[in-house]
């Protein structure tokens, strides 16, 4: 771990972030980071609880003179999205994140940084450890599995917390105060198909799509970023009619909440059409690159000759699959009619696997309006069912409805203006925050979300702005001072 990270200001926060990032913490494999946080709380002599699903709660009494203030919950999630560049050798299950300073930014070498939501966790750890910052009674809530299902928030039972205000430290623009978020649902389409022996007159080709930025499938879904799964399907579409193209394998995307950066396919084509295939792929690739050149300047599309695959997909299923993939909605479905510039409903075609007689298509649909979420989910369901897929809805979680009359919102808005000489941007976001879920069992809590500036979350380009962390840290400390009386 580079010492230059630990020397950054505020040192209390960056040192805790460095400690945290030394602990592998993939979603659904949080055993080590749970133990790490449990040991941390106990080392401070504070009441530390691990609930039945793995959430960690650490309680710290108010500092002298703050005993009459409302108790607060400071909340962040322990897990992080694991993404790496194709040429990066890294094992997220065993290695800590390798960080470095790049001007005003902290980055990781070829992987996600874990600033989402590690900077929030580190903030709370620094407050818990220090005795120099005045604060009310704090219940620190560290949830698990936020990134792949929010099962930690869903499993948190009522009665464990008593704070009247919840500060969620999971927003990624330092001038923004979050008051609402989208809910989400996983849409999974699957079907089996018959594999056929590849005829002798066919030859094999590998197609790869890579170099896309990727990114957060909620916060960045409106930016016009390329989706590797949609690009790959565009290259394969009508391939049978033109070159006798038959699909053997496809492997595209990775995590449900990350815009897919890469896809690869193995296909077989008629040998007599090889020259036409090469020419057509080159031409279509140029069209796609030209369309995406502003947002995706590093997009690469490669085709290379390989051994002819032994098995290919049943032709009827292939034709239905490529048409369904073309028809399936990806990106923004509807903008909010009530909040300017807010995406209301969207879909990310996150994962596509075709292999050994099985098709798997995984999507994450988001919306701040429940009925619109179901409408888009049913649109996708109908699209995939038309081609014979079975479609499952799962992982449904609610959105967080904005409360513009929130007392803590008014306090924080004034603090931000006093510190920075300008008003903050009060907004709902299209990401999935845990506030909506937590509010089901703790409806009395006044909730707010904020954080430092983080760019490229859920991608290897993830980076945290050093100057923004300094600005955010001052904001946090001032908020703690001004929590109202009971």
UniProtKB/TrEMBL annotation:
Cofactor names: Zn(2+); Co(2+)
Catalytic activity: Hydrolysis of dipeptides, preferentially hydrophobic dipeptides including prolyl amino acids
SUPFAM superfamilies in alphabetical order: Zn-dependent exopeptidases
UniProt xrefs under InterPro entries: Peptidase_M20, Peptidase_M20_dimer, Peptidase_M20C
Lineage top rank: taxon: Bacteria
Domain Peptidase M20 dimerisation residues, every copy: 208-293
EC category: hydrolase
Recorded GO MF terms: metal ion binding; metallodipeptidase activity
E.C. no: 3.4.13.18
CDD domains linked: M20_pepD
GO CC annotations, alphabetized: cytosol
Keyword tags: Cobalt, Hydrolase, Metal-binding, Metalloprotease, Protease, Zinc
GO biological process terms on file: proteolysis
UniProt KW Zinc keyword: yes
Protein family per UniProt: Belongs to the peptidase M20C family.
Protein's recorded name: Cytosol non-specific dipeptidase
Organism name: Pseudalgibacter alginicilyticus
């Amino acid at each position: 771990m580079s010492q230059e990270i630990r020397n950054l200001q505020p040192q209390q926060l960056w040192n805790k972030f460095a400690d945290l990032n030394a602990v592998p913490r993939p979603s659904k494999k949080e055993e080590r980071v749970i133990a790490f946080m449990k040991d941390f709380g106990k080392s401070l002599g504070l009441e530390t609880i691990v609930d039945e699903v793995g959430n960690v709660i650490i309680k710290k009494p108010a500092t002298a003179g703050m005993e009459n203030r409302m108790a607060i919950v400071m909340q962040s999630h322990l897990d992080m999205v694991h993404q790496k560049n194709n040429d990066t050798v890294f094992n997220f299950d065993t290695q800590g994140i390798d960080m470095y300073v790049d001007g005003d930014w902290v980055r990781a070498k070829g992987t996600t940084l874990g600033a989402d939501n590690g900077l929030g966790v580190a903030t709370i750890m620094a407050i818990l450890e220090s005795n120099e910052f005045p604060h009310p009674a704090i219940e620190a809530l560290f949830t698990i599995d936020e990134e792949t299902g929010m099962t930690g928030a869903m499993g948190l039972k009522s009665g464990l917390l008593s704070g009247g205000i919840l500060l969620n430290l999971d927003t990624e623009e330092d001038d923004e105060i979050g008051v609402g978020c989208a809910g989400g649902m996983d849409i999974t389409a699957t079907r089996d198909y018959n594999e056929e022996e590849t005829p002798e007159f066919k030859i094999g080709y590998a197609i790869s799509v890579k170099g896309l930025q990727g990114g957060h499938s909620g916060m960045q879904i409106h930016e016009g970023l390329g989706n590797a799964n949609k690009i790959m399907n565009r290259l394969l579409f009508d391939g049978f009619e033109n070159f006798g193209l038959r699909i053997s394998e496809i492997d595209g995307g990775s995590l449900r909440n990350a815009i897919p950066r890469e896809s690869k396919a193995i296909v077989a084509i008629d040998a007599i059409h090889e020259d036409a295939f090469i020419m057509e792929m080159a031409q279509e690739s140029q069209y796609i690159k030209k369309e995406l050149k502003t947002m995706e300047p590093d997009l690469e599309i490669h085709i290379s000759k390989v051994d002819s695959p032994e098995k290919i997909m049943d032709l009827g299923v292939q034709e239905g699959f490529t048409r369904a993939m073309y028809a399936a909605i990806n990106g923004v479905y509807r903008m909010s009619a009530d909040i300017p510039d807010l995406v209301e409903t969207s879909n990310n075609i996150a994962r596509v696997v075709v292999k050994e007689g099985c098709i798997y298509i995984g999507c994450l649909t988001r919306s701040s309006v429940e009925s619109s979420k179901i409408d888009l989910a049913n649109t996708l369901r109908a699209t995939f069912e038309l081609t014979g897929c079975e479609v499952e809805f799962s992982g449904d979680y609610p959105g967080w409805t904005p409360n513009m009359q929130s007392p803590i919102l008014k306090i924080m808005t004034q603090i931000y203006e006093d510190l920075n000489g300008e008003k903050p941007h009060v907004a709902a976001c299209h990401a999935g925050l845990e506030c909506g879920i937590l509010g089901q069992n703790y409806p009395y809590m006044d909730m707010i979300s904020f954080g430092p500036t983080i760019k490229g979350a859920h991608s290897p380009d993830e980076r945290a702005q050093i100057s923004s962390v300094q600005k955010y840290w001052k904001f946090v400390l001032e908020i703690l001072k001004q929590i109202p009386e009971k």
